[in-house]
Design a protein that fits this description.
Blueprint lengths: L1 H32 L19 E2 L6 E2 L3 H26 L7 H21 L3 H20 L10 E3 L1 H10 L5 E9 L2 E8 L1 H4 L2 E3 L8 H23 L10 H6 L3 H44 L5 H30 L11
Antiparallel strand pairs: 1-2, 3-6, 4-5
């Protein structure tokens, strides 16, 4: 046993430091071969394809963007974990899990306990939505930590036109690094406009407002549905309290006006949900760009650790707020227990 621990210690402290040193050396060489270009930052997601189809009626074009691809990849990661990691582990009959299965089990158990202590008997209805949103946002947020995300992509006809539109005098270089088949792999250098030539294959999904707003609308709809399920149509009485208007002349007017404010507050959840997540992840992306450009070796490590924590916190905040608002929606406006 002692020999095993000694061997593990040698590997941990003897070999790992050489791996870290090798990564730093390779990073220095790579930064010399591929000097970082000043980043170009834009809010809209970049199109990876030409127009796939046009929406009837509105005439708006639909094309695949790099944030859509990130969302699809996040879904695939979650499905793979569910069917090929967690599923076999549960079927094995083991009582204690290790590795990534143990981490997932601990996180699921924590989320379930939080839901149970907040929503009580509605845990079974609320937890799946809480868990699904939290894990999707978590995987989508952590994608920006993967090397190549937001930096490796393609140069399209439209992106070149866009770059020249930004700065007609921009001087760009395309140094060929190697070939994949007949396709050259190039490093783009030059002014900021040159960075706009590159369309990254994958960009963190939460840096696109379309993703965060869509997720906020799903959370908003889930809150309304669980409210109606728990209280029936009486759920809407907190928004349009006509009963108080006639039952309590004078004071009923105040209750009715408060209900109007409740409507505003309810819809403002979509704005607060979407912009909180978008702002934090987009700011992190900009920070990674700036630090990576100014100090291309090692300095990004600290920012990556920060973004690891931010991605986790934002996923938990988004999911927990959804869960808490859903639990609140099951409670009667008058403070009574729901009648269903």
């Amino acid at each position: 046993m002692a020999n095993t621990e000694q061997a593990t210690g040698k590997w941990k402290y003897g070999v790992n430091r050489w791996i870290i040193l090798a990564i730093i050396v390779v990073s220095v060489i790579a930064a010399g071969q591929i000097p970082p270009v000043r980043p170009y930052i834009q809010l809209p997601a970049e199109a990876l394809t030409e127009t796939l189809f046009t929406f009837p009626g509105t005439g708006e074009d639909f094309y695949l963007t790099n944030t859509m691809l990130a969302t699809i990849l996040a879904d695939i990661v979650l499905l793979v974990l569910a069917f090929f990691v967690v599923g076999p582990a549960l079927r094995s009959g083991k009582q204690v899990f290790k590795g990534i299965t143990g981490v997932i089990e601990a996180l699921v158990e924590m989320l379930h306990n939080l839901t149970e202590s907040t929503a009580g008997k509605w845990t079974k209805a609320i937890f799946p939505i809480f868990g699904a949103i939290t894990f999707l946002v978590l995987v989508a947020n952590w994608m920006e930590l993967i090397p190549g995300v937001d930096s490796i992509g393609i140069i399209t006809h439209h992106s070149v036109e866009h770059a020249h539109h930004l700065d007609h005098d921009a001087v760009c270089t395309e140094d060929t690094l190697f070939h994949i088949g007949s396709t050259p792999v190039v490093a783009v250098g030059g002014d900021t406009a040159c960075a706009a030539m590159v369309v990254p294959f994958v960009r963190a999904a939460a840096t696109d407002l379309n993703f965060t707003i869509a997720l906020a609308i799903i959370a908003f709809m889930a809150i309304q549905i669980i409210g109606v399920r728990a209280q029936g149509l009486g759920y809407f009485e907190k928004f349009l309290n006509f009963r108080a208007l006639f039952a309590k002349p004078g004071m009923g007017i105040i209750d009715f006006v408060v209900g109007i404010f409740e409507i505003v507050s309810e819809f403002s959840k979509i704005i607060s949900f979407s912009f909180r997540l978008f702002g934090n992840i987009f700011a992190g992306m900009v920070l990674l760009f700036v630090i990576g450009t100014l100090i291309p070796v090692a300095a990004q490590t600290g920012v990556l650790m920060l973004e690891f924590a931010v991605g986790l916190i934002q996923a938990l905040v988004f999911g927990m707020l959804t869960m808490i608002f859903m639990a609140q929606a099951t409670q009667s406006h008058h403070g009574d227990e729901e009648h269903h």
